[in-house]
From TrEMBL:
Superkingdom per UniProt: Bacteria
Biological source species: Rhodobium orientis
Name of protein: CENP-V/GFA domain-containing protein
Keywords assigned by UniProt, alphabetized: Lyase, Metal-binding, Zinc
Gene Ontology molecular function terms on file: carbon-sulfur lyase activity; metal ion binding
Family label: Belongs to the Gfa family.
PANTHER family for this protein: CENP-V_GFA DOMAIN-CONTAINING PROTEIN (PTHR33337:SF3), GFA DOMAIN-CONTAINING PROTEIN (PTHR33337)
Chain ranges of the CENP-V/GFA domain: 9-120
Length: 141
């Protein structure tokens, strides 16, 4: 029988200062093409692995927080490594809160073949979305 700990997803920043583990499996997976995700990732799109804020356990290091206005109203806490700047989580790290873990920070990166693509109206030319997946031109309803 497999040890339950073996199935826990782990991740961290680029320099290794901040390390975390997810104590429960993610509930959803999004590829977001919005301008904010392009800016936070400094790349073509953001990968959001959705978990409950109580299911993220920091193993080492303390992320810094930058707070911005959320597109849907209110504010959003953006957690990042104070040394290398890697963005790690968006949201409040408390039980009952929806948190987006930045997908590229996971040691085993997510399989994007079934991911939902959102804000496709902002998609960069040349980025190809698989035919069969759920897509939303803007924020999903
Ligand atoms: Zn770092
Ligand atoms: Zn986005």
């Amino acid at each position: 029988m497999a040890d339950a700990d073996d199935s826990k997803a782990t991740g961290g920043c680029q320099c290794g200062h901040v390390r975390y583990e997810l104590t429960a499996p993610p509930t959803d997976l999004y590829v977001c093409h919005c301008r904010e995700c392009r800016a936070q990732s400094a790349s073509a799109f953001g990968i959001s692995v959705i978990v409950d804020g109580g299911d993220i356990r920091l193993v080492s290091g303390t992320p810094s927080v930058w707070t911005r206005e959320a597109t849907v109203g209110g504010t959003l806490d953006c957690h990042f490594c104070p040394h290398c700047g890697t963005r790690l989580f968006h949201g409040t790290l408390a039980p009952g809160e929806t948190v987006s873990v930045k997908g590229g920070s996971l040691d085993v990166p997510p399989d994007l073949s079934g991911a939902k693509h959102i804000w496709t109206s902002r998609k960069l030319p040349g980025v190809v979305i698989p035919d069969h997946v759920e897509t939303w031109p803007e924020e999903p309803e």
